[in-house]
Design brief:
The complex is a heterodimer of chains A (408) and B (434).
Chain A (H helix, E strand, L loop, with lengths): L17 H5 L15 E8 L14 E9 L5 E6 L14 E9 L4 E8 L2 E9 L3 E4 L3 E3 L9 E2 L3 H5 L8 H28 L3 H17 L9 H7 L17 H8 L5 H21 L8 H18 L11 H24 L5 H16 L2 E2 L2 E2 L7 H24 L7
Parallel strand pairs in A: 1-2
Antiparallel strand pairs in A: 2-5, 3-4, 3-6, 4-9, 6-7, 6-8, 10-11
Helix pairs in contact in A: 3-4, 3-7, 3-9, 4-6, 4-9, 6-7, 8-9, 8-11, 9-10, 10-11
Chain B lengths: L5 H6 L4 H13 L8 H9 L10 H8 L23 E9 L3 H21 L28 E6 L38 E7 L2 H14 L4 E10 L27 H7 L17 E10 L1 H5 L3 H8 L34 H5 L12 E2 L2 E7 L5 E11 L3 H11 L8 E11 L12 H4 L1
Antiparallel strand pairs in B: 1-3, 1-4, 2-3, 2-9, 5-8, 5-9, 6-8, 7-8
The chains are: A alpha+beta (408), B alpha+beta (434).
């Protein structure tokens, strides 16, 4: 390994492993050589013997064979027992590796690259609660799989000590965005009502971008999202289906010569559905583990539907949508930031690539509107796609880190 | 993993071509089907110079599940002289890295991934810190399966983006346009070529996904064609999709002197181009074969266009695949027409000897055209010391050959396959960027 490797934006860095593993740079992403993973040390999982069997501790990539001899299901974590809390009601310590859903009587491998430090197995037993195994010390200065302090519901929901928790902040962001949207859609309704379709096209764009900025992806808003921002795909009749409603339906009409009268229905329905969402949102259940997933899913959608041009129903503004999606992603990172800085070394690269993507996308904005992706020069489009792809690689670990480990 | 069909290959009997394959495995490439190498080396020395290795040994090894690793480090890159594997992916990328620093990062990462994928091993566990570090396509342990990764750069990399304008070797230019070409710009050129070859389709796809995942910000695929080398039917040089054996008359990759005079860039180049030493110029031509039209042509006409028998691969004046055509004895082309492909491509004269190229062709097959005809053909690749002296000279002799009516060159490019990565601290293009 060349310690002098100097990575700039970290093309490298995180892609697969996250900078945490790589020490932030290229050159380190080597797997172990052939056959270096030992066949497997058998580790007992039970109330009486949690963690028993780790007889000859050593550093390096290795496999533990976890044997659940308890009478119920188990979850097993390899933790750093000297950091965090070992309170059996709520263990909170850095996790190096995990195996979930280990059935009674079964054996499952756990792969980990053991570095210098302190280790213990934590057995969460369906029948017997939590047990912590013997503490194992690995001397020296060897880098291994990073230990991540798992995110708890408390981290996300907040407590009297940390009132500005991500969930609350995110909810406030969406609520305020929905307020903005309400007035923008009022303007859109008014323009269509007055037969002023040129202005209506501008009002459509600003309101659609406001919606896209919320970062709705994969059912954040339940069925509201498919009513408000659904595609014609998957509907019998496609563009002519009565169930094709919302922003894209209105876009299709505004850019395909439909009259104000044709558009009154779709615009009214859009307004109705947005009001419905605004009313329902305060009582909608926020799936907390989704916050981490959204960190890359918003942009996954942008890559799949906007940067391909798929969701262009006539306005040629999918790059504007992408820019709005980057805004939504950045907002999400902002609320998750305090929990991320201590857990993810690749965060600066993720920000850097998001900003680079936004800069490249915004360069496609022209005085009269936006350049459709298909009309971009090939080199410009490649730059955008590359930045989106790299940003996604750098965002992906966030979902893994935010997977709420403790379901108790 | 290292178990494969060496014994099996031997038991199939000593088809001549398998000797060279074995010799290559043991000697030049150092690995592939080494099991047959021991007995083969001494025989290979006296084998005809025109043989490129292919054959039973490779087939046996592939059938056994996985080829042995091909050494990654060396003066030259793998995948140039090493025995052609069954599967390949040929790609060209546009570099999206911003400036020289990011280009250097890109080449370093590419080197790291190629080094790991070529050797195989267990991908690092990431715990709960990230999605899995490997796609899992090859199972929990990455098998090398004879993977070779060959990286090239084109003239377009030497513009003002990376401060390399002054470093472009004079012989590295944009691809020439020849009279019978129908080039699609989207399938031509690109800044960087990458060829991934291995024993099985899953191995090359795994490598591609791994490399793409690690280099998303640095480069974007410009064009890609998947290819394959057919097994010998029934023996000898593999056939192309016109049904003819293809690449019979290659220079001998075991002849180091010949490789130095035809394939490798040697220190004879100018001072400013010393960084290219150990590299080789690569020409890629994507050539569709109009197979429906071809199949409507009589075999005699086909053979006259090629200059060989379709069934045996023998030149029309010879008895077997490796007979040397005697053009001097047939000056008017009564036996092998003056316009036959093999005669124009390699007239076998002292004057044309320096224009010989090392061909590594792959068949491709990718769907259907607008009139329902099959889109298949040849990924023509060749290595040489000097593109103008070799490929271009050959191609100029081939202009308007009768075969042109049945083929359609539509893409490709000129590249410089970089010098090899010599050790663990070296990386692709280090000398170029120095």
């Amino acid at each position: 390994m060349d310690g002098a490797v100097n990575c700039r934006l970290g093309l490298v860095a995180s892609a697969v492993l996250g900078a945490a593993w790589l020490g932030g740079c290229a050159g380190a992403a080597q797997g172990s050589g052939h056959g270096q993973v030992t066949a497997g040390t058998v580790i007992t999982v039970s109330a009486a013997g949690c963690g028993a069997g780790w007889r000859h501790p050593h550093s390096g990539p290795q496999t533990f064979q976890l044997r659940n001899v308890s009478a119920g299901a188990a979850e097993v974590y390899l933790i750093n027992p000297l950091q965090g809390s070992l309170d059996p009601d709520s263990v909170s310590a850095p996790v190096f590796a995990e195996v979930e859903g280990l059935g009674p009587g079964t054996t499952t491998p756990m792969q980990v690259d053991v570095g210098s430090g302190t280790y213990a197995f934590e057995c969460e037993l369906q029948r017997d609660g939590t047990r912590i195994g013997p503490i194992v010390r690995i001397p020296g200065d060897v880098r291994g799989t990073p230990g991540i302090l798992s995110v708890t519901f408390d981290d996300l929901i907040g407590s009297p000590i940390a009132p500005f928790a991500p969930a609350r902040q995110y909810r406030a962001y969406v609520s305020s965005g929905l307020d903005t949207l309400a007035s923008e859609v009022d303007a859109l309704m008014a323009d269509v009502g007055a037969g002023n379709l040129a202005t209506a096209r501008q009002a459509w764009l600003s309101s659609h971008l406001s919606y896209e900025r919320l970062g709705a992806a994969y059912g954040t808003f339940g069925t509201f999202d498919s009513e408000i921002d659904g595609r014609a795909d998957g509907l019998a009749g496609g563009l002519h289906s009565p169930r094709f409603t919302g922003f894209y339906r209105v876009e299709y009409g505004l850019w395909h010569g439909q009259s104000a009268a044709d558009l009154t229905g779709p615009v009214t329905l859009l307004d109705h559905d947005l009001r419905g969402l605004r009313t329902a949102f305060p009582t909608m259940r926020l799936v907390l583990s989704d916050l981490g997933l959204r960190a890359h899913e918003i942009l996954e959608n942008a890559l799949q539907f906007q940067l391909t041009g798929h969701d262009d129903y006539g306005s040629g503004t999918t790059l504007a949508t992408t820019s709005a999606n980057v805004d939504g992603t950045l907002e999400l990172l902002k609320v998750l930031h305090p929990l991320l800085t201590t857990r993810y070394d690749g965060l600066p690269q993720a920000y850097a690539w998001l900003h680079r993507l936004q800069r490249l996308v915004d360069a496609a904005r022209r005085p009269g509107g936006w350049t459709p992706v298909g009309a971009l020069p090939a080199s410009q489009r490649e730059q955008i796609d590359a930045a989106a792809g790299q940003a996604l690689e750098d965002l992906a670990p966030i979902a893994a880190i935010f997977e709420v480990q403790k379901q108790i | 993993m290292s178990e494969h069909g060496g014994t099996d290959a031997r038991s199939r009997g000593p088809a001549r071509r398998s000797f060279l394959r074995g010799a290559l495995g043991a000697g030049v490439a150092g690995a592939t089907v080494g099991a047959v190498g021991g007995a083969a080396v001494s025989r290979a020395v006296s084998a005809p110079s025109s043989v490129v290795a292919t054959g039973h040994a490779m087939r046996a090894a592939t059938e056994a599940g996985a080829l042995r690793p091909v050494p990654f480090h060396g003066q030259h890159q793998a995948g140039i002289l090493s025995p052609p594997q069954r599967q390949t992916i040929m790609l060209s990328f546009d570099v999206t890295a911003d400036g020289r620093g990011e280009l250097t990062d890109l080449l370093r990462v590419l080197t790291d991934r190629a080094r790991f994928l070529s050797a195989g091993g267990t991908p690092p566990p990431v715990g709960i810190s990230a999605p899995p570090s490997d796609s899992g396509v090859l199972g929990p342990v990455v098998v090398p399966d004879g993977l070779t990764i060959t990286v090239g750069v084109s003239a377009s990399l030497f513009d003002d983006r990376f401060g390399l304008a002054g470093r472009r070797p004079a012989g590295l230019t944009a691809m020439d346009v020849f009279p019978n070409d129908e080039l699609d710009p989207a399938q031509c050129g690109g800044d960087l070529s990458l060829q991934l070859s291995a024993g099985s389709p899953d191995t090359v796809l795994h490598a591609l996904r791994d490399i793409a995942r690690h280099t998303r910000g640095g480069m974007q695929v410009r064009w890609r064609v998947d290819g394959f080398v057919s097994p010998p039917r029934p023996a000898g040089t593999p056939r192309n999709l016109q049904g003819f054996m293809d690449g019979i008359a290659n220079p001998a990759v075991t002849d180091a002197a010949q490789m130095d005079s035809l394939v490798w860039i040697t220190s004879a180049v100018s001072d400013g181009e010393q960084w290219t030493v150990g590299g080789s110029y690569l020409v890629v031509r994507l050539i569709r074969m109009l197979v429906e039209f071809w199949d409507r042509v009589s075999v005699i006409e086909q053979e006259n266009m090629i200059g060989r028998r379709r069934a045996s691969g023998a030149p029309l004046d010879g008895n077997d695949e490796f007979s040397i055509p005697d053009y001097a004895a047939d000056p008017n082309g009564f036996v092998i027409p003056l316009t036959a492909h093999i005669r124009l491509a390699n007239p076998r004269t002292a004057q044309t000897e320096p224009s010989r190229i090392l061909r590594r062709g792959y068949n491709y097959d990718r769907g259907v055209d607008p009139v329902g005809d099959l889109d298949m053909g040849l990924i023509f690749t060749c290595y040489q010391q000097d593109i103008q002296r070799q490929f271009v000279a050959v191609q100029k002799r081939l202009i308007n050959e009768p075969l042109t009516d049945y083929i359609l060159p539509f893409g490709g490019g000129y590249f410089l396959a970089l010098p090899g990565v010599t050790d663990a601290s070296d990386y692709y293009g280090r000398a170029m960027l120095a």
